[in-house]
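Quarterly update from the structural biology core.
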Amino acid sequence: MASDPAVPLHGSGPDAAIASAPEPRRRRWFSVRAPAGEAIRTLRLLLLGSILAPLLVLLGGSYVAYKTTVDHARTDLIETVAIAEENVIKVLDTHALVAARVSDLLRGLSDEAIRAREKELHDSLRLQIADLPQVETAWAVDRTGHLLVGARNFPSGSLDLSDRDYFRALREPGPEIYISGLQSRFDNKPFFAVARRRVGSTGEFQGVVVVAVSPDFFRSFYAKLLPDNVDYAAGIFRADGATLARYPEIVWRGSGPAPPGVLIRAAAQQPQSGVRMEPSAFDGIVKMIAYKRLDRYPIYVTIGRTRASILGEWADVMLSHLYFGVPATVGLVLLCLIALRRTRREGEAIAQAREAMAQREAAEAQLRQAQKMEALGQLTSGIAHDFNNLLTAISGNVELLQRRVRDRDPELLRLAGAAMRGVDRAATLTQRLLAFSRRQPLDPKPLEVNRLIAGMSDLLRRTLGEEIEPETVLAGGLWPVLVDANQLEHSLLNLAINARDAMASGGKLTIETANTLLDESYAARHEELAPGQYVMISVSDTGSGMSAEVREKAFEPFFTTKETGQGTGLGLSQVYGFIKQSGGHCAIYSEPGQGTTVRLYLPRHLGDVQTVGLPESPRAGSGRGEMILFVEDDADVRIFATDLLRELGYDVLAAATGMEGLSLLEAHPEVRLLFTDVALPGGMTGRQLADQAVQRHPGLKVLYTTGYARNAIVHQGRLDPGVELIVKPFTSAALAGRIRQLLDAA
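Predicted structure, tokenized:
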């Protein structure tokens, strides 16, 4: 037999049998294909020494210098933001005072009186702010949001400002002062405002007084405070993230200010003050940003410095240390690299070409496999439903004919038996096609593989015959798996039949189990295989073996080495499709004259430890007068199944569509079981029919049937939880057993 890259080691415990695929050869840093090995090794040592010694000294010094530079920058930013804080507090206090004075000026005046004296009040407002460069303008708004009087414009024109955030905020009870960021409607000059609520003698809302703060005042202040307007940035933000002032000025594309994401995230952790190194929300440049919240206002002041400027300062310090060491080190390193590069170039080019070729071949193989699987899946699913309906009608009527003829006409019984064998072969062919294309419905449950194999011993002996000796080597402490037990049994039986055909003169068949670990290197070389813990089932024979060409095509559908008419070429492909659909992996190891080993890898099940063995087939039973509703659009299948169920002693109602079935169910609430096809005409599927039927009659049992399981009851190749399904074509015994099992379970 051929060697196996993932051979399990057997032991007595559950974790004793572990297999790991050998690691692929790693590409060395220096790939040498020239005979001058000693010279290359000397150059390597010289290169490493010329790099490592200066590098260690440089790294230590650079780390110390970097820490010193960063700490100095942090301290400088903290001191600068404290100065900016004092300035902002003074400016906001001044504006709050101006707003209070304007409120006093207007106190006791009605809106009509203010408009009547607009010129006088306009001049008074201008006089109030004339000597305050930090104040841009001031104005008053009535209770409806219309402009009453302003220091900048006369006449005011009753401009509607009711949509401004300061008006909306102060109109409702709350803080007396609101700081707003906005843009002027007169000349599009940006500013932010300190707004104060105007109230009457009884405390009612009369409007708002607004004092605008000019960002130019802050920009001129920061231009003097900050040493470099390229590397430094300053800003004033509201606690909710609104931008009030920014230096240097940023022009935004949108209508509102961008929220300073760095500030918001930092304030959530340290609300009062802090220093962060993050990308700026304004320009995306990474900066060290110091921030501080004002004591009396919901305002943050920030000073930022680009990380590039800090690194530049650190680089200036390091540059003085590199003037002498770098040229000598670089020169020596370059000489070594040039020598090494010449010797490596040819080997690297060859290795890269081989690697690219291997990757391209692997990609092409995966693409061909995917296209083949998709084409076969579409073909199979397209014909499976109608074909299995035909087979169900044929097999059912032939079986009914056999039961009615019995021993009265042996020749007719012989012909009916031949017809049934043909139906069985056609059904098996369809199921194998569905299995290979991974579109068969699976009902996986926790399974003890050793128990299943032990239960198959008698079946294997009958299948193999007397000339072949079966042997099982079952590992102790084998992990449970989550798999469809019936399909796994069929797969092992297929492998046993293939092994029997390969041992025409007799031999030995060995079935072996083990716990196995497939590592990442092994999984990377196989399609759709995830690394992890698996249960391995090995089926080995001492037969004629396979050539490399045959081994590569063994899992392909319709490929067979048998003579025409001796096989369909779907045995191994069915095994391959089932194992892949179950999340596992298949591998063949064979050489001519050395026998064949097929290994199946199923993922370890880590869920419910209440594992079960191979489920017993339900026994056929007669009806006891229960009423069954059968819904099937195919008339032949409907007639056959109805006649069969009535012969078994059941009362049967039949319908062709889901709506007809619901009507019959409403008229006959005594129905005990709904037997329905999954695919139905009329806009209602079998699953939709069952859902509505169970909702109306909670105790109703449901059994589905289908020739091809659609997504209505199957998802990712597995039956939905709680779904009971019998696949077409079915025999009368199988149908009788399933129905009796469901009704008795109630």
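Confidence is low (pLDDT under 50) at residues 1-36, 251-256, 609-615.
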